[in-house]
């Protein structure tokens, strides 16, 4: 699968943005397996971009295509299999079910299209240091713990593209690197591409392409 | 592996507003019960009133006369049926056929001859053969024939047997009466002719003395005044003498029917009206309950909005989700309708057993139309419920 971005610009951005940005207003093709880093200072439209790529919002000009399929023309019924089988995401605001336990949060995602066994899920949580939190309600976990749950949840399905929106904002360096390592391994196992958008350069992400938003 | 709804179900806040949920369940149950009971009673009435009238070939035959009032007294033309009126009767969709009872237009005297010292002025009438309930093959006449076959009303015969002893006359059996030849003396236009009449049958339907049509037409021409003879009585052939349309038409025309045959029909009109009203009321209650339920459903979905939205974001398909959310309520609908159906069955059993004393026209098991209505109600509520959930979820997605 390849991801094509053509002349993309949020409708609420001025045209002049296209002159300074390496993404807005450009023609870009991302292939499976590429590690893409998008450096985006506050207000440059980082979350907008991730939301556009995941089909959450359509208030943009230009086009986003997964292979030949224009995401703008996809109805909710067509978006579901794209999200279930091809594109996974870690939101900046995490979006867990607050009243469900960590285990339930993970299972709701896993059962949709299981890539890992429940045992493997447990192993992943232990690796990121939240193994003991499985039976805690998500809302009682710290932001850092919730962020790790959101990361693991994104890794439980098959995907060609993994969209990460400030995935380590609540984690210390050691936990961030730990999580990054897991993400890289999982992407490699699927020969998938990672699109990581963050405020600044993250040194431990071995990107193959770099864009300034 | 199929996706399981089990981990999803707790995300729906169905427990909230239990009161409104139970109100809608009860409302739905009461509405469905009213509707089913009304339909069943409607059918019961139809079945009960199908019987109770004299039928031939599946048709009812009833006589219609005009009401003689103080205003129309002495104006025979107002009390007789004109050809236009006969045609109008015939044109009604609920009337299959019409036959006027044509009377004699001359003087007729009846005497038992030498057998009994009995003589009276009387009348003769004729009716199309098709309208006569007891029609023997001998009921024919040819010009020149002096024997006239007669069909006598059973009621008239009974009346004779009632007054005969007081008059010093013998009471006679039907068989004897059919064996006694009577003299029919026709007078008019200066002619007098004596015929021999013989009773060939008794009629329960026609209160008259019937002779073959061609005889009466001939004798009216021979002895009558020559005027066009009009009938004051008309027999109509109808599928159902208790047809409410027929009764309405007759009332509107100010005609008179023989009452006992249509008494049931008049009651039927009132009772059916009551049950139609009750049925409509039941339908309204069902609609109200479904509306209340849809509000409850909207509330559940609004309260679970964040969770449902997140599920769609995670890649759950809207149609799968709406199907499964709607499915939660399917057992509720089925239980409610089946409970109402059980109560309706109980009502039917009590009605049949205690009110109708197990009459054969009715059956204790519910009529298939009632059962079908219950099934249709279940299917309808499931479909509307599913569509409502899907449209609510689609709205979530576009928000």
Task: Briefly summarize what is shown.
The complex is a heterodimer of chains A (213) and B (399). Chain A has 213 residues and is α/β, with parallel strands linked by helices.
Overall description:
The complex is a heterodimer of chains A (213) and B (399). Chain A has 213 residues and is of the alpha/beta class. Chain A has a single domain (32-58, 82-212), classed as 3-Layer(aba) Sandwich (Rossmann fold). Chain A contains seven helices and nine strands. In chain A, the strands form two sheets. A five-stranded parallel β-sheet of chain A has the order 6-7-8-3-9, sandwiched between helices. In chain A, strands 2-1-4-5 form a four-stranded antiparallel β-sheet, with helices on one face. In chain A, helix 7 (173-190) links the parallel strand 7 and strand 8 (193-198). In chain A, helix 4 (102-110) runs parallel beside helix 6 (143-154). The model of chain A has no long low-confidence stretch (mean pLDDT 93). With 399 residues, chain B is of the alpha+beta class. Chain B has two domains: 9-51 and 265-398, no CATH class; 55-60 and 102-229, no CATH class. Helix content of chain B is 52%, strand content 17%. Chain B is built from eleven helices and twelve strands. In chain B, strands 1, 2, 3, 6, 11 and 12 form a six-stranded antiparallel β-sheet that branches. Chain B has a six-stranded mixed β-sheet with strand order 5-4-8-9-7-10. In chain B, helix 1 crosses helix 10 and helix 1 (18-50) packs antiparallel against helix 11. The longest helix of chain B is centred in the last third of the chain and has 45 residues, at 259-303. Chain B starts with 17 loop residues before the first helix and ends with a helix. The interface between A and B is medium-sized, with 23 and 22 residues.
């Amino acid at each position: 699968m390849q991801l094509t971005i053509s002349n993309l610009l949020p409708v609420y951005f001025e045209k002049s943005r296209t002159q300074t940005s390496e993404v807005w207003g450009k023609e870009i093709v991302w292939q499976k397996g590429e590690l893409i880093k998008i450096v985006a200072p506050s207000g440059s439209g980082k979350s907008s971009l991730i939301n556009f790529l995941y089909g959450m919002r359509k208030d943009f000009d230009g086009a986003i295509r997964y292979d030949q399929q224009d995401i703008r023309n996809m109805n909710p019924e067509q978006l579901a299999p794209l999200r279930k089988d091809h594109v996974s995401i870690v939101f900046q605001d995490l979006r867990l079910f607050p009243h469900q336990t960590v285990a339930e949060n993970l299972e709701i995602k896993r059962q949709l299209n299981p890539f890992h066994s429940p045992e493997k899920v447990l192993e992943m949580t232990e690796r990121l240091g939240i193994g003991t939190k499985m039976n805690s309600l998500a809302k009682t976990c710290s932001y850092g713990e919730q962020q790790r749950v959101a990361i693991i949840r994104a890794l439980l399905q098959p995907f060609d593209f993994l969209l990460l929106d400030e995935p380590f904002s609540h984690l210390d360096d050691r936990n961030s690197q730990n999580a990054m390592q897991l993400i890289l391994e999982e992407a490699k196992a699927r020969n998938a591409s990672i699109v990581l958008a963050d405020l600044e350069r993250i040194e431990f992400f071995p990107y193959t392409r770099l864009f300034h938003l | 592996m199929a996706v399981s709804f089990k981990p999803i179900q707790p995300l729906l806040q169905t427990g909230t507003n239990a009161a409104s949920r139970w109100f809608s369940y009860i409302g739905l149950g009461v509405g469905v019960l009213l509707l089913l009971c009304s339909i069943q009673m409607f059918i019961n009435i139809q079945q009960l009133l199908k019987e109770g009238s004299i039928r031939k070939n599946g048709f009812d035959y009833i006589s219609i006369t005009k009401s003689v009032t103080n205003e129309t007294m002495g104006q025979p033309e107002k009390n007789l049926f004109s050809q236009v009126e006969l045609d109008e009767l015939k044109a009604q969709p609920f009337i299959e056929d019409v036959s006027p009872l044509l009377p004699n237009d001359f003087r007729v005297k009846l005497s038992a001859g030498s057998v009994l010292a009995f003589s009276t002025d009387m009348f003769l009438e004729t009716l199309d053969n098709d309208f006569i309930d007891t029609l023997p093959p001998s009921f024919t006449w040819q010009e020149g024939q002096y024997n006239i076959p007669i069909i006598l009303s059973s009621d008239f015969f009974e009346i004779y047997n009632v007054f005969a002893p007081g008059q010093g006359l013998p009471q006679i059996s039907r068989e004897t009466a059919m064996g006694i030849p009577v003299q029919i003396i026709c007078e008019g236009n200066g002619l007098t002719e004596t015929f021999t009449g013989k009773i060939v049958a008794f009629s329960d339907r026609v209160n008259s003395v019937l002779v073959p049509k061609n005889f009466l037409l001939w004798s009216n021409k021979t002895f009558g005044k020559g005027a066009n003879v009009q009938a004051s009585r008309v027999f109509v052939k109808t599928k159902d003498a208790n047809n409410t349309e027929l009764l309405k038409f007759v009332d509107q025309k100010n005609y008179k029917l023989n009452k006992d045959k249509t008494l049931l029909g008049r009651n039927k009109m009132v009772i059916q009206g009551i049950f139609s009203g009750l049925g409509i009321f039941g339908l309204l209650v069902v609609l109200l309950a479904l509306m209340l339920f849809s509000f409850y459903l909207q509330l559940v979905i609004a309260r679970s909005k964040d969770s449902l939205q997140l599920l769609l974001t995670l890649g759950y398909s809207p149609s799968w989700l709406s199907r499964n959310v709607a499915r939660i309520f399917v057992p509720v609908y089925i239980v409610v309708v089946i409970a109402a159906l059980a109560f309706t069955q109980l009502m039917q059993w009590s009605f049949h057993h205690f009110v109708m004393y197990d009459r054969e026209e009715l059956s204790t098991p519910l009529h298939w139309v009632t059962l079908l209505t219950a099934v249709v109600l279940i299917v309808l509520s499931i479909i509307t419920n599913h569509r409502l959930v899907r449209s609510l979820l689609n709205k979530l997605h576009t928000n």
